[in-house]
Write a structure and sequence with these properties.
- The chain has 8 helices and 7 strands; from the N terminus they run ααββααβααβαββαβ.
- By secondary structure, it is of the alpha/beta class.
- The protein has 2 domains: about 45 residues, no CATH class; about 190 residues, Rossmann fold.
- The strands form 2 sheets. Strands 1-2-7-6-3 form a 5-stranded mixed β-sheet, sandwiched between helices. A two-stranded antiparallel ribbon has the order 4-5.
- α3 packs across α4 and α4 crosses α6.
- Bound molecules: zinc ion (ZN) (2 copies).
- The site of one zinc ion has 8 residues, from α2.
Length: about 250
């Protein structure tokens, strides 16, 4: 005989009232405890994982951590970016569900896979802290949580590197970057961050965390701000990289 815990019981009631759908293919899930349907989970697990080190500007895979990129965006404040995969189809559906529908367990799962993959696949640079890209307080109120903070917390557990959340804040609530060109995005986020001065970053190497890297304008501006406080090298870590220009080859 199986004994149901109180949590199981609550899930059963929730499943009955609100049958959940797979965020990727929309199939009805047999239980709200499932993050995706079996098929989508299998496909997700089988996919080749980890991009990086990638150029944060043109997204090309770099031969090694010490190799810089020679593209025109190579003055990027980030050294390189590591990511779980290309933003599109299933990753897009998963990240949108995590971010906008507040499916926190889905976010924890994705971040955990990202942490495991990083540990297995690359010799990560020795970083002193993990820094989540901050949200403006108004956006934080609207969304209810900072998705980058959630990813950073999970990565911290996996990688054993402490999270630093109060070194930098977002002082301007920038308009959405969607639909803007690279130059417009850079302009839009210029001066958007401010150091709090609470933490000494002198000589510290950092892992800067966000959910998706698109042109990298936001992460770059945040990295530039952290560097103005003396931070040394900064690498980006994201759940997905939007290929955009099509230069990314897998
Ligand atoms: Zn599915
Ligand atoms: Zn490049």
């Amino acid at each position: 005989m199986t004994t149901k815990t109180m949590t199981d019981f609550c899930w059963d009631i929730l499943d009955f009232i609100y049958p959940q759908r797979c965020p990727v293919c929309q199939a009805t899930l047999s239980s709200g405890r499932e993050l995706m349907c079996r098929n989508c989970m299998l496909k997700f697990r089988e996919k080749k994982r980890l991009l990086g080190p990638c150029c944060p500007s043109c997204k090309r895979q770099l031969p090694s951590l010490s190799d810089g990129c020679e593209c025109e965006g190579s003055d990027h404040a980030l050294e390189a970016v590591f990511s779980l995969g290309v933003y599109g189809e299933e990753t897009e559906a998963l990240i949108e569900n995590f971010k906008y529908k507040r499916k926190r367990r889905l976010g924890s799962f994705l971040s955990e896979v990202l942490g495991e993959t990083l540990l297995e696949s690359v010799k990560l640079p020795r970083a002193g802290f993990i820094v989540p890209v901050p949200l403006h307080k108004r956006k934080l109120r609207e969304r209810g949580f900072n998705q980058s903070q959630a990813v950073a917390d999970q990565l911290s557990e996996k990688l054993g590197i402490p999270v630093l959340s109060d070194s930098v804040i977002r002082k301007r609530n920038t308009r959405s970057q969607t639909g803007l060109s690279r130059e417009e995005r850079q302009k839009n986020v210029k001066g958007a961050f401010r150091l709090t001065g609470k933490v000494d970053l002198e000589g510290r190497a950092l892992l800067l965390v966000d959910d998706v890297l698109t042109t990298g304008a936001t992460m770059s501006e945040c990295a530039r701000t952290l560097k103005s406080a003396g931070a040394d090298k900064i690498w980006g870590v994201t759940l997905a990289v939007a290929a955009g220009t099509g230069l990314l080859e897998l």
